[in-house]
Structures are given as structure tokens and as C-alpha cells.
Design brief:
Layout: H1 9-29, H2 31-66, H3 76-83, E1 88-95, E2 98-105, E3 115-121, E4 126-132
Antiparallel strand pairs: 1-2, 2-3, 3-4
Length: about 130
């Protein structure tokens, strides 16, 4: 038969509280650093999700152009709702009926990314488009 050992519960509780207190002190002293790293991780996840979304929308725009689904005279607002905000919109410089050029850039293409130029008329309707490599 084994002898029963008596465990003194108050000492066990105090020891547990002491260990928790010490680990809490370490956590509090590095709280700012931990929160900074957590913020970086959260931002990285958000950036990856945004890049994935932009890539999906860009591919949808390119597919619609390639398959003839992007129609001329489509309103600028509708284009933005369907394909997201462009990378840049700038006034057209002396291009006849074209008032503005909106640029969509492939986010996964790096420095040599393919771009799509959507040319808008004075009524903010799609006049023409161009794909540049």
C-alpha cells in the first residue's frame, strides 16, 4: 500500500498566484512590443486581403474586356462599383472627346505590371479602353 501524502492546499494556491504574478509582470513590461507586433501581423493580413481583392477585380475587368462584356458608354460610377477604385484617374491631355483617363494596374505584376487605361468622355462615360504591357 502506498502512503498518502498530504498536500497543503494554501501553499499550492500561493505558489500558483506567485507564478501568475511573475508571468504577468513580464507580460506588462513587454506589452507595448507585443501589441506592436500584433498590429503588424494584423496589418499584414489586411494588406494581403486587399491585394487579393484588387487582383480579383483586375482579372474580372480584363476578362470582361477580352470577352466583350465591357460596354462603351458605361457610367464611371458603375465601373468603379464593378471593378473597384482605379489606381489613378488623371485629366486627359488634349485627346479630343476624352476628358479623363483611369488606370487599373495588375497588383501582382510588380514593376512591369500590365495596366488597363479606361478613357472617359465629358459625361463620365466609358469612351474607350487600352491594355498596355
Amino acid at each position: 500500500m502506498m502512503a498518502k501524502t498530504k498536500i497543503n492546499h494554501p501553499y499550492l494556491i500561493l505558489l500558483s498566484l506567485f507564478v501568475l504574478f511573475l508571468s504577468g509582470c513580464v507580460y506588462i513590461t513587454h506589452f507595448d512590443e507585443v501589441m506592436f507586433l500584433k498590429g503588424l501581423a494584423d496589418n499584414q493580413k489586411q494588406m494581403q486581403a486587399q491585394l487579393k481583392r484588387e487582383g480579383r477585380l483586375y482579372n474580372m475587368l480584363k476578362s470582361d474586356i477580352d470577352n466583350g462584356r465591357l460596354e462603351k458608354l458605361t457610367q464611371k460610377g458603375r465601373i468603379f462599383r464593378l471593378y473597384g477604385e482605379p489606381t489613378l484617374c488623371k485629366p486627359a491631355e488634349e485627346e479630343g472627346n476624352i476628358k479623363e483617363i483611369c488606370i487599373y494596374r495588375n497588383p501582382s505584376g510588380g514593376l512591369l505590371a500590365e495596366i488597363i487605361l479606361l478613357k472617359l468622355d465629358a459625361q463620365d462615360r466609358l469612351y474607350s479602353w487600352e491594355i498596355q504591357n
